[in-house]
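Table S2 (continued). Query chain:
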Amino acid sequence: MQQLLEIIGPTFFVVALGFLLGKVGKPHVTSLVDVAMFVATPCLVFKTLYSSEIVWAEAARVWASSVFVMAGSFVLAWLVFGLRGKGSPGLYLPIVFSNTINIPVPILYLAFGDEGVKNAVLYYVPNGLAIYTLGVYLASGKKELRQGIKAIFCTPLVYAAVLGLVLNLAGAEIPSVAVRSFELMGQAAVPLMLLVLGVNVTKFGFSYLGRTVTASVIRVGGGLALGWLAVWLFGLSGIARSTVIFEAAMPGAIVVAVLCSRYKTEAALCSSVVLLTTLMAVGVIPALIYYLT
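Corresponding output:
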């Protein structure tokens, strides 16, 4: 229990600070997001992937697990909503695409250190690529696949992940002062992401309660079941296994709510699912960490 509190306590403390900041301070959250996603997180990702020992066969299994969970989530959503003619982007997007960076990275870092971050980033790669291609395509009414692909090339996190993996694979050495610089900046990523999460929670509301609850259960409960199935199918163990199970049960990605708002595609419904699954995570995360550690 003490170990659980040491992991969960700091996480929810910073989220609570973000929530208070959003209620009282009315911050320009766009600036926080820009610093977190375009500066601090890429530095954390690069340093982690460059410095970690990566077993490529295991990395491939983590990637396969990520794809499996996304595909399985879509199948579950289609069986529940699509067969009845009620499927829509506002439901499919937050069910298929989970929050694989903002919430899990800080917690996995506290639970498993750099090894947890490494596996979380590996899990994110297929998820991030899919969000900025298929996600944009669905949110835009199946018209903007080119814009989604363009967004990938404008995302520093993707470059940081690829560069870190390439340098690691090549056995290249960069000056230690550079590594420490990336590490220093990367340390800001965890608290910034949690602050942004807390602020964002104040911006969402509920609508379409029946569909929201059903979609949220599929995202969290169905995702968790798919995560367990994935680690069994692909033979994952240790921290990689824990990471996949944890990531699979994460709430809907905030970015898909942003996409739906941008393209005016059921933004209220999508945001409701993101909010409810995020609130569900308050209970799910401690239970999962207790089980996985």
